[in-house]
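Tip: read the tokens left to right.
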């Protein structure tokens, strides 16, 4: 797990290094976002029975943006039915493809920690904190000079499968989401 975290940190440093180099002059916006979405979580039960659950999620993101990059720190709460708790805390690095004035496309990588507690009726609950990593992609629409609307998809793969005492396994999360992003310049 430590090696994977080191690889993610190294990748983030390599991608963001040009942003902090002193020879580059760039405009930076500060960002605050509220996100809502729907997620599919696959849970495999003992005996090979696979159950896919659709759940809602809400999150907060803070970050910064240049002309071509965005970086966010994020926290998300998932309203999980067959899981008593699912929260994620992490970060995203995104590259912006500026193909038109009102819209840009982004591709990114994400990593962090997922707190999962599996509670199946009749079985003792099992909780775990696991590292996750994944990717995201979507469109960023510039509604006004100060507000962007983001529509995207995200995949999170847990570093280790979270297994309950009953044998239920959670290994990944697919999310479709929309965010309202407030931008401002800081001196």
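Filled-in amino acids:
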């Amino acid at each position: 797990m430590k090696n994977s975290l080191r690889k993610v940190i190294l990748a983030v440093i390599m991608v963001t290094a040009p942003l902090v180099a002193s020879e580059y002059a760039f405009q930076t916006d500060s960002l605050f976002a509220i996100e809502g979405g729907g997620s599919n979580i696959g849970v495999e039960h003992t005996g090979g029975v696979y159950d896919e659950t659709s759940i809602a999620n809400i999150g907060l993101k803070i970050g910064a943006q240049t002309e071509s990059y965005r970086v966010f720190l994020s926290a998300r709460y998932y309203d999980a039915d067959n899981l008593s708790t699912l929260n994620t805390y992490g970060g995203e690095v995104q590259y912006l493809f500026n193909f038109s004035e009102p819209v840009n496309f982004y591709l990114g990588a994400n990593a962090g920690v997922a707190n999962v507690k599996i509670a199946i009726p009749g079985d003792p609950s099992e909780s775990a904190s696991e590292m996750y990593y994944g990717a995201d992609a979507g469109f960023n629409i510039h509604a006004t000079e100060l507000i962007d609307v983001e529509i995207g998809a995200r995949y999170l793969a847990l570093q280790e499968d979270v297994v309950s005492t009953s044998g239920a396994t959670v290994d990944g999360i697919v999310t479709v989401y929309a965010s309202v992003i407030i931008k401002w310049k800081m001196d």
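The mean pLDDT is 83. The beta strands are 29-44, 50-65, 69-79, 83-97, 103-118, 126-142, 147-163, 169-184.
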